Amino acid sequence: MRSAYGRPPSLVLTFVLVFNVAVGATLGCGGAGGNDGTAGVAGSTGAAGTTGAAGTGTQGTAGTTGNAGTTGAAGSGATTGTAGTTGVAGTTGEGGSAGTAGTTGIAGATGTAGAGATGGRGGATGSAGAGGRGGTTGSAGAGGRGGTTGAAGAGGRGGTSGTAGTGGATADFSFFVTSIGALRTLSGSQNGFGGDLRFGETGDGAGLRGADKICTAIAEMSMPGSGAKVWHAFLSAPAAGATPAVNAIERIGAGPWYDRMGRLFSANLTNLMATRPTDADPAIKNDFPNESGAPNHSDGAPGCTGNSCPDNHDTLTGSGSDGKLYTNTSNPTCSGWTTAVGSAGKPRVGHSWPRGSTGSSAHWMSSLDEAGCAPGINLQETGGPDPSNPTVGSGGGYGGFYCFAMTR
Hints:
little secondary structure; two-stranded antiparallel ribbon; disordered N terminus
């Protein structure tokens, strides 16, 4: 038979069924598989895992992987089941924090300054002072676990150099006139030593050995470290017992010699053997300096002129103008510089600054005979030595003498 549309009924039914299925598939709702046949809603994306906080010390444990979302159950009927939600992502493990940095090593301690070595007075030259030991190096800082390595400790500062024994600042110091102040200090008397210079020494030659000790002690007081040199007094002495006669000029080495301020006194024996040293620095040629480097004539009297300056030029030598033992008078050395009895002798003296412009009055080694060997000081201009005042300073002085270093 034919339908109202002019087609066979079976064809019409088939068309209707196909059309209804198609429309149902197009218009069905999402979510659970409804009977209306629509597609299920897609599952939502799981929330992202948060970043782990920085771990302290060791490396943090890695976060576990989130479980996978379950698959949505299939919808009943012809529709597609709801899609399963995505599983929540596992949280990221906490990161290990950086280890604590190592502490900076302790700085090395400052080295102790070496003390200058002092040689025996009148003996061998002192050894140079040892330099201070350098500070120890600080220990390196230990590296923190997982952190940065500690900074290395700074090295200790090196110790300061010890005072030089025979070199350095004392190298040139090799001549002076003993000052009145130094002789008063060492003798313990305001009148000085007089003609007895033994200074604790005994036996043959004690006067010269004692005078050498006095030179050494004064040099050390003036410039610490210079006492390590071998100092000799410019004094001649007669034979005594087993000790032969001694000439001052043969006790002082070959030069050169410099004063406390580094000024040349004389370069050699030839230049020294003149009325005044021919090559001496002009500042000291006619006014020999004491251990402080001050011209002895004006020391203690700043601005003095002429006779207002101390009359202190008489200087013990016991020598002639050739620097050898003086023999023209009786006992010109106060018995080899061992007696302070006024009448025991008349010591020969030179002039540390010229009493006159020429001749013996200007000679630094040999100018005149003093009145006696007793201790005594006369700094006033009174003319020549006074026989009624038999002291080493009667003619204008205090019993001073010259000191030379044999070594530099």
